[in-house]
Amino acid sequence: MRKIRRFIRKLFIASVPAAVIFASASCDFLSAPINNALENILPPSTKKPSEPGKNDEDDIPIPPVENPVEPEPGKDDLDTGGKETKEPQPSLPDQHQKTPDQVQPPSKKDDKKKSQNTQKRVNPSKNDIDKEPDVDEKIDNSLKDIGRKNFNIDARGFSTSSRSITLYESRKNNDIYVDFEEIVSRLDRIYGSGRLDSAQQSFWKVSYDLGNNTKLIFDEYNDRIQFNSDSVFALAPANYLPPKENFIKFLLNKTQSFSGYEGLKSFDLKKYDMDIIVDNGKVYLPLSIFNLIFASNNYFNVVYNNDKFSAIDYDKVSAYNNSPRYTSAFYDIFDNNTSSISKVQTPTKQQRINNFHYLAFLFDNFYGLSHKLYSQFNATNFYDFASKTELEEKLLSSKPEDYRRAYELLIYFYLNDLHSSIVTKSFYGYKSALLRTRPKIRRGAIKDPGDALLSTVHKEHARVYKLLKEKRQYSAHPLYRDLNLNNKITHIYKDTARIVFDSFEGDGSSNIENGQYDSFNLIRAALEKIATDDKENNVKNIVLDISLNGGGSVLAMQQVLGFITQKPIEIVSHNIASHEFTLNKYSVDTNKDGLFNEKDYITKYNWYVLIGQNTFSAANLFAHVAKKLPNVKVIGQKSGGGMFAILPTVLPDGTFIYLSGPNGFSAYNGKNIHSINDIDYTENGVEPDYKLAYDHFYEHNLLDYLDKNAK
User: Fold this and answer.
1) Residue 615 and residue 507 in one domain
2) Are 290 and 175 part of one and the same domain?
3) How large is the average pLDDT for residues 407-429?
């Protein structure tokens, strides 16, 4: 159907100007640790990646929007006008081919000559223009109605099995499509009702105003989704007011676009051989694209397995729980043993191509570390990367064992970051889609490289975790039971107190004895206990032990920072998908008296923060902020990184994965921000102010072992 557009473009392009809309936006964050392992996986060839190329435009690691250009007419075959034809052969786009940019619709005068349902013509040969029939591009010509499906929902606190939805199949490539407004209405308890009431329709576009001048535009002609704020991912208006959180007072909450990205941002689906269909004011999108942009970004996923349709929270399929029963909660909804897809052992060639295009769109637009990944191989995009790493053939294979191996190499060998992991198998080729979150690894010498973990960071993470856990409990002897750091949150030795906590929790409870607490209340209670136990006021130093803290709630992390500084805290976040950054400046009411003043900070202590390889994600951010505070010393070993929040998503073949998503966070460095390069990069970890060997982490006089010459 897209072929017929070029003829109309030829008729109207000369007289139509371009337009740009300017606005600003905001962003959110959620993160947590992942520890996943693999067994019996052969690594790829030993071919070394080429050195990154030097590019004058690398100051901004995301390529700018191209200038509008007029494409040359193509030599496409004629459309049959809806008559039955042979199934088109699947094809992959040329990764070096430039795609046409935005072309404006015809003038109002010419528009009136067309029917309300836009009629388009095939781009014929020069000698056959008058013979080419008009084709009305309705969904009947592009999509096949495959009926209504039960829509089970268990996401964001909303659960129901009584809803249904109509699904469609692309006549071009068999991809599954949804009516955008219908699926949003079925998820109204998540998005809120009335979000899409304000819609404007034009020749090839449907434009929504979500409030506060927040625009969401679906452009059928160019197959683009346009927007001016990342708040559209939640179908919400941009919020220019500071957020309201318990015991936090925001002094600044400012969102801006990076230089060069001040206007409309866009996702170009044409580059990935995907279509947007607009008919009678309705928008039809590939289900995979709707899920990624409007569900995965909100920490739930919408999935269809050829039988059943479901929306479910990401943590129902959480690798963090290290138990198959949590993973099975996701796939039990689909009941693979009885669904039609379980009877199909292998996907079709076209389904694998669709899946490959989705991977390319996902990594190019939403993988937070894509620029770093591609630069290692002198690649410009995912298609280029997959070709140069020889992953393309396996990713396109119809054999589940082949493409699963490709996923393992991609996630664990090439990405090699702790936020990225594989949670489930695909829907094909297995009686169960469950994937063990902790496979058994053979002990002893490695005779075959397939016995080793592909991910070096996961491997080091597991090694240090085991080491420090053992170090913590070395004093479990009855004579030293009170010194066992695994048994106690607080510990006092001479003039030094230690507070141990291994995650940032934000549930608001405070029952510490039963382990039911959030981190803000834990630190308050720990400080009260130290004051009670230290009757002679000997304690001069407090060590916050986050050496095994894998992250969690960033709100809880922000609250805890308030205990170690009396100055306002500054954190900057950025979003690679929307090319925006937000600067937050805030204070914390640590004593809960309703005031934000000097009484919220305890001045009599010297503060230390103990970090290591397993200090990750939100804890990594805590370490980065703490290092910039003049009254705090960060000690230990380099932290584990994890600058970008996780993005949980599902591939079209049913494989559930976590990636380092588009939202990155770091302490503000005081610079004027024009590009991503002006923001501190902490994905690889934070160096301590003073080094401390792992062997001395749990010495009770650990401060005596600090190497103050090694920073």
Assistant:
1) yes
2) yes
3) 90
